Every structure is written in structure tokens, then in C-alpha cells.
């Protein structure tokens, strides 16, 4: 049994939050650069502006997007780990609290009814998974709500099958239009239940852009959905063009014989995600 102190987790979350909010992921930057090379006119200008903004944010150590998001933390806890000190959720929240205060990131979390702000961007959305080993792996995903609000959950019938899955992904992006600041990334959960499907979609957004699901049938859904989305012509920031999405990333789980849940979690062009291992 290995002991990890809650302060180590708090400090790791602090560092992840700071890095994530200041920069695009390397794979996102590559994808945006490639998209800018493919486009012309207003769409090209929009993509070049997005890239220039990312350069300025990194150089000046300023948030790459003013919406520094809901702090989503995915934690894989080794079954041979003992966490000593504060409860895990409190350590994660304290890391978020300190980072958002010290870095002057926008605090966006509020009571859903009174709309009173919690003033420190907590609580974080914490997802835990017990895995083999004696380490803790953390993933920090600041999720802006311009894109989160455009996400959808479908409870399809099994008869709708593969075509229904692709149609659900494409429809989500079509209905969103320019609202989620395209070009977007689609995290897609297929299977499971109403709730696990949505979690899968969020988890899919932690994958590298350009990666493909190891299952050939799932990878073919990713490719077909991406092609059909880019044929919509919405384009960067809604200016039209060839690139409406940078990627479609699917994750799957077995589901009930009577169901086919599909969740589509939209991510804007500002893909931010940092990972660490303790």
C-alpha cells in the first residue's frame, strides 16, 4: 500500500488548472493550423486570429479563453493507494480554488436557482475510477459552457443502429450552428445508461485530436460523422468553410438490449486538457 497525501493532489490540481487555462493542447494547435491552411476568406481569418490569440495567451500567461470553465477533474485512483489527509474532493476543490484566485481566472460556478456565484469556481466536477496500481492519475478539463450548452443526449432505439448514431452526432452540430465557437470537437459516448453515456462523452474529450478508436467499427463512425459535419459548411466561427469540426472522438460501453444511448458533448475550438501522475 502506497500513501499519497491529499496536499500532493491539491498541488497537482493547482498546477494542472494553471497550465490548462493558459494554453491549447498541442494536438488542438496542430489541428487548427491545418484547418487554417485549408481555408480561405473569413474562415481563414478567424482561424488565424484564434491561433494568434493562443500565442498571446501563452506569451503573456493570460487565459486563452475568458471562459475558464467548469473545472472537470477525472481521477484514476490505484487500488493500492491510501490517501491521507483531507478527503479527495476537498483536496481537488482547494487546488481549483487556489489556482483560479492566484491566476485571476474567471469564477463561473453558481447556484442553479438563486444564481449566486460560489466566488471560487468550486465545486469541481470530480469523476473517480478505481484502477490497478499504486498511482493517482489526474486529468483537468476546463469546460466552457458556450459549447457545453450545445451538447445533447439521445436515447435511441436499437433499430436505429449505426446510422442513427452518426445522424445524432451530425444533428447536434447542425443545431448548434455557430454558438459553440466552431470548429468544434465532438466527444461521443455510445452505450451504457443515461448517465454513464454522458460521462463517456466527457471522457472522450480527453483524447488526443487525430487519434482513432482502436475498434474499427467505432473508428469508422468517427470518420463518417466528421466528414458529414464538415460538409455542413458552418465553418470557423460560423463564417462558412470546409472545417466545422476538428475531430469526432467516440467511446463505447455495453448497453441494455432495449436501448442505444448516445451522448454528444461539444467542445469549442479552445481545447484545453492537462494530465499528471502522482
UniProtKB/TrEMBL annotation:
Organism superkingdom: Bacteria
EC number: 4.2.1.2
Pfam families from the UniProt entry: Fumerase
Keyword Metal-binding appears in the UniProt entry: yes
GO molecular function, one term: fumarate hydratase activity
Keywords recorded for this protein, A-Z: 4Fe-4S, Iron, Iron-sulfur, Lyase, Metal-binding
InterPro entries according to UniProt: Class-I_Fumarase/Tartrate_DH, Fe-S_hydro-lyase_TtdA-typ_cat
Family: Belongs to the class-I fumarase family.
Protein name: Fumarate hydratase
Organism: Candidatus Borkfalkia faecavium
Amino acid at each position: 500500500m502506497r500513501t499519497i497525501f491529499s496536499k500532493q493532489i491539491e498541488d497537482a490540481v493547482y498546477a494542472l488548472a494553471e497550465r490548462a487555462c493558459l494554453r491549447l493542447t498541442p494536438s488542438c494547435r496542430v489541428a487548427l493550423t491545418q484547418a487554417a491552411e485549408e481555408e480561405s476568406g473569413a474562415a481563414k481569418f478567424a482561424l488565424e486570429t484564434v491561433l494568434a490569440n493562443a500565442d498571446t495567451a501563452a506569451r503573456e500567461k493570460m487565459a486563452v479563453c475568458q471562459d475558464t470553465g467548469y473545472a472537470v477533474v477525472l481521477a484514476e485512483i490505484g487500488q493500492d493507494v491510501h490517501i491521507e489527509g483531507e478527503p479527495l474532493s476537498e483536496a481537488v476543490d482547494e487546488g481549483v480554488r487556489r489556482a483560479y484566485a492566484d491566476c485571476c481566472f474567471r469564477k463561473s460556478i453558481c447556484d442553479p436557482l438563486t444564481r449566486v456565484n460560489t466566488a471560487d469556481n468550486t465545486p469541481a466536477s470530480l469523476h473517480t475510477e478505481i484502477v490497478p496500481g499504486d498511482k493517482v492519475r489526474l486529468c483537468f478539463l476546463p469546460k466552457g459552457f458556450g459549447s457545453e450548452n450545445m451538447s445533447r443526449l439521445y436515447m435511441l432505439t436499437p433499430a436505429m443502429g449505426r446510422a442513427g448514431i452518426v445522424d445524432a452526432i451530425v444533428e447536434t452540430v447542425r443545431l448548434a450552428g455557430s454558438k459553440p465557437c466552431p470548429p468544434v470537437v465532438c466527444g461521443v459516448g455510445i452505450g451504457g445508461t443515461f448517465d454513464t453515456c454522458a460521462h463517456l462523452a466527457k471522457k472522450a474529450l480527453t483524447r488526443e485530436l487525430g487519434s482513432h478508436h482502436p475498434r474499427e467499427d467505432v473508428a469508422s463512425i468517427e470518420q463518417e460523422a466528421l466528414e458529414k459535419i464538415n460538409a455542413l459548411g458552418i465553418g470557423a466561427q460560423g463564417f462558412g468553410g470546409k472545417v466545422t469540426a476538428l475531430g469526432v472522438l467516440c467511446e463505447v460501453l455495453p448497453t441494455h438490449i432495449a436501448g442505444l444511448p448516445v451522448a454528444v458533448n461539444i467542445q469549442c475550438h479552445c481545447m484545453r486538457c492537462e494530465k499528471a501522475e502522482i
